[in-house]
Amino acid sequence: LEDLQDTFDFCFKVHYQPGEDRTSDPQYAQQVQALQAKLQILDRQRREVLAQMQQLLGRSETLQDFLQQELGAWRERQQHACLGATVDTRLRPLETWFTELGQGLFQLLQLLRALGDLRQKVTYERDPLKAETPLLEQRLRELLIYLLQSAFVVEQQPSMPNACKRPLVLRTASKFSVRARLLVCLHDRNHRMEAKIHIDRSGPPGFRKFNILTSNSKTLLAGDSPQDGLVCDFQYLTLKEQKDSRSGKGSKGAGEGPLVVTEELHLITFTLAYAYCGLELELETSTLPFVIISNNNQLSSAWASILWFNMLSTNPK
């Protein structure tokens, strides 16, 4: 397409001379006719390229629908695994598929930008690039944003070491870990990708409030090999309850809120500043709800709350 355009542009500048009356010159008329033929070929090729991109975007949308189904099935398996089921929760296949689709979409984005550059050099009346490329780019960006937002997942739910294989029950002042992964393994090495964690970003009023001790932010780094993926691994975290400044003599105790301690469900939210190929956005994902206890006597009641939630709901929020 670029070669065709350069040829047309050169011939146009050499042969076409507006403002001069050369209608009686048969050679000039022939040259103008040849120019029009070249422009028609150029126009047809531009339309073909755009039609191919439309087709590829349609296929990408279909593929993305399949990926969302696979991701939904993985989330269900992870939920069952948290309750003790022996299911496969590996993310490698999903990571491969998400990355391949992401690569294809980013490549299309670069092609669209290249088409935009071509239009800057040569344009004409009813130029399809002028009308269609902005719409294609908008559709492509929406696809990419949706893919990236769904590709940010919690790989390891909050759990304490040696927690009797029962994640999602945390004890104050005890260490726990949680890990998120970006399934699209594409990133700009010149851009610092920072992941942050927040507890109960928009929690129900009346619940106890907690602070995460130790670092609540981490730079997301790719490992030395592509197999390592893009992971933000938070380890050795601890929770400390915020003291209510208004509490004094005669105030309500911690267990006298809207729910008893072992029925309060909390969430950790990850946010990630992502940038690649000129696309910048904030990604967000949340853990499954978990219970925070202060002593081991509360463990069985807390585990009952986790069982109830996970058997009755698929939406963490």
Give the arrangement of secondary structure elements.
Elements: H1 2-15, H2 26-82, H3 92-121, H4 128-151, E1 152-159, E2 169-171, E3 176-182, E4 194-199, E5 210-213, E6 217-219, E7 221-222, E8 230-241, E9 268-276, E10 279-286, E11 291-293, H5 299-312
Parallel strand pairs: 2-11
Antiparallel strand pairs: 1-3, 3-8, 4-6, 4-9, 5-8, 7-8, 9-10
Q: What does the model show?
A:
Residues 1-144 form the STAT transcription factor all-alpha domain. This is STAT2 protein. Its main location: cytoplasm. Residues 157-293 form the STAT transcription factor DNA-binding domain. Keywords: Coiled coil, Cytoplasm, DNA-binding, Nucleus, Phosphoprotein, SH2 domain, Transcription, Transcription regulation. A hairpin with a 2-residue loop joins strand 9 and strand 10. Strands 1, 3, 5, 7 and 8 form a five-stranded antiparallel beta sheet that branches. A four-stranded antiparallel beta sheet has the order 6-4-9-10. The chain has a two-stranded parallel ribbon with strand order 2-11. Helix 1 (2-15) packs antiparallel against helix 2 (26-82), helix 2 runs antiparallel to helix 3 (92-121) and helix 2 runs parallel beside helix 4 (128-151). It has five helices and eleven strands; from the N terminus they run H-H-H-H-E-E-E-E-E-E-E-E-E-E-E-H. With 317 residues, it is α+β, with helices and mostly antiparallel strands. It has helices at residues 2-15, 26-82, 92-121, 128-151, 299-312; strands at 152-159, 169-171, 176-182, 194-199, 210-213, 217-219, 221-222, 230-241, 268-276, 279-286, 291-293.
